[in-house]
Amino acid sequence: MMLIPTHHFRDIERKPEYLQPEKCVPPPHPGPVGTMWFIRDGCGIACAIVTWFLVLYAEFVVLFVMLIPSRDYVYSVINGIVFNLLAFLALASHCRAMLTDPGAVPKGNATKEFIESLQLKPGQVVYKCPKCCSIKPDRAHHCSVCKRCIRKMDHHCPWVNNCVGENNQKYFVLFTMYIALISLHALIMVGFHFLHCFEEDWTNQQQAYRLPREGTAEARTSLHEIKQPLKSSTECSSFSPPTTVILLILLCFEGLLFLIFTSVMFGTQVHSICTDETGIERLKRKHQPRERRASWKSVKETFGGDFSPNWFNPFSRPCDPEPLSDRDWVRQVASLSDMDNTETTEEQSEERKDEDSVEVIDE
C-alpha cells in the first residue's frame, strides 16, 4: 500500500457521481491462456520490421562476405556458430518482448460496483485512469500507444512495438544485451577481414577486373599469369572489391550505432532493476516517495529466481507476479492531519469524515 503525498489531495474527488459508472464498461472476460499480445501501431510495426531487417542484413554480410569465402575453415565455423547463436537469441528475445503482455491492468474495472466492493476506509484512496477507465494499482502508468495502464511501466519502446513492464522487462534486457554482443562481434570480424584481405588479395582482384577490358594479347598473358593468385583472392570475398567495401562499411556503421545504443539501454535497464525504480518513477521521484525492494531480490524477480542459465534464456519465464488483491488497488494517505491542512473547505472536511464517501484520484 502506497503513501500518497499530501499535495495530491486537492485533486481528490469524494462524490460517487465522479465515478461516472455509465462510461465504464465492465471488463471483458479474460481470454484463453496463451492468447498472444500484439500492439497494432504502425510506427511500432515498422520499427520492428526494420530491426529484423538490420539483423538479417548483418547475417548476410557476415556469412556470405566474410565467413563462407574464408580460407580458414576453423575460423569460419567457430565465428559462424557464435554469431548465429547470438542473432537467434536476439531475435527470440525481440519476439518475446513484443508479444508478451507487459502487465496490463484489466480495462474498464473502474465501475461503481467494483469501487464499493473495495470498502474504502477513511484515509484510503484509489487511482482511476480516465483514459482506459481502470483502477490503477501501485506503480502502474497509462501508455497512450498501448491504450492500457501497465504495471511497473518503464517506457514504451517502438523497436519492440510494446511497453517495457513487469512481465517482459527480462526479454527487453536480453534483447539489448544480445544485439550489443552481435554488434561487437561483427565489428571485430570486419576489422580482421580488412587486415587479412585488403592489401594483398583485393589488389590482385582489382587488376583482374581491369585486364579483360584492355583486350590485348599482352593483357591476356598477364591475366593467365595471375590466375593462380586470383583463386585465393576470390576465396577472400565472393563480391567485387567496391561492393565488398560498401557492404562492410554499412555493416560497420550499423554495428557501431547499435552497439552504443543497446549498451546504453542495457545499462539503464540493469540500473532500473537493481534500484527497483522504473524510468517513469525516476522522473517522479521527488513527488512520489516510496519504499524500494533490495537489489538482489528485484533482480531475481525480474529474471526468474536464483542465478542460473535460464537468466539468459528468452524462452524461460520470469517470476509470475502475484495476482492483484483488493489491497493492491487501495492506497493509504500520508497523514489525515496533513490532509486537514490542505486547501479544502469545511464542507469537504466533513465529507472526509464520512465513511460512506468514496475517494478517487483522477490520474
In DSSP terms (H or I, runs of 4 or more residues), the helix count works out at 13
Order of helices and strands: EEHHHEEEEEEHHHHHHHHEHHE
Distance between the termini: 17 Å
Q: Could you name the ranges where pLDDT drops below 50 across 5 or more consecutive residues?
A: 1-19, 219-234, 335-358
Label the overall shape: elongated
Number of strands: 10
* Main β sheet profile: 6 strands, mixed
Radius of gyration: 29 Å
Strand content: 5-15%
Alpha-beta classification: alpha+beta
How confident overall, as mean pLDDT? Answer: 76
Estimated helix fraction: 40-55%
Protein name: Palmitoyltransferase
Transmembrane segments: 45-67, 73-92, 171-195, 245-266
Keywords: Acyltransferase, Membrane, Transferase, Transmembrane, Transmembrane helix
GO molecular function: protein-cysteine S-palmitoyltransferase activity
Q: What does this entry look like structurally?
A:
- It is found in: Membrane.
- Its EC number is 2.3.1.225.
- This is Palmitoyltransferase.
- With 363 residues, the chain is of the alpha+beta class.
- 51% of the residues lie in helices and 9% in strands.
- The protein has 13 helices and ten strands.
- The protein has helices spanning 42-67, 73-99, 112-117, 169-197, 201-214, 217-225, 227-236, 241-275, 279-283, 295-303, 326-329, 336-340, 346-352; strands at residues 3-4, 12-13, 124-129, 134-136, 140-143, 148-151, 155-157, 162-164, 331-333, 360-362.
- The strands form three sheets. Strands 1, 2, 3, 4, 9 and 10 form a six-stranded mixed β-sheet that branches. A two-stranded antiparallel sheet has the order 5-6.
- Strand 7 (155-157) and strand 8 (162-164) form a beta hairpin.
- Helix 1 runs antiparallel to helix 2 (73-99), helix 1 packs across helix 8 and helix 2 (73-99) runs antiparallel to helix 4.
- The longest helix has 35 residues, at 241-275.
- It is elongated, with a radius of gyration of 29 Å.
